[in-house]
Task: structure prediction
Amino acid sequence: MTEFRTLLHVGMPMKLKVFTTGGTVDKVYFDALSHFEVGEPQVSEILKEAEVTFGYEIEEIVRKDSLYLTDDDRRLLRERIQASPERLVLVTHGTDTMVQTAAFLKDLADKTIVLTGALRPARFKTSDAAFNMGCAVGALQILPPGVYIAMNGRVFQADKVRKNREAGRFEELE
Result:
């Protein structure tokens, strides 16, 4: 418990940098056949509805389903995170390739990076997006520098997690 207390930024102004890449969290569905497009990033709406009291800046990197992210997209994300002066970084990302993108970011020094997303679009009433983002923001405030994934109410080290498609959740690797 002492370790976490020393990491908390109590009383210090918090500034968060958010990078968006698309994914289910931002999807807009058009019909019963699951035709969709990745729409406007929803993180701004989620943070506004939560009435957060910290500063944040949002930068859209790409607007893609994560299955279509390329290594060039991941390099661009890495470059933008590296160039950002903020130490606390939230990345919204599709769940299918979140672990692969985290691996691209693993050795960025002096930054705490948390990737999160949703299994159901933020526009859906039953979405897990707001919960996952809240969990990620909380984690950013107490974790040491490194790369993490926040999904399903848990925070995982990015190199020790996998998506279990059948169960619809992320799980720690053994």
Remarks:
- The CA atoms of residues 162 and 171 lie 6 Å apart.
- The first helix runs from residue 2 to 7.
- Strands lie at 15-22, 27-29, 36-38, 55-64, 88-92, 112-116, 146-151, 154-157, 161-164, 169-172.
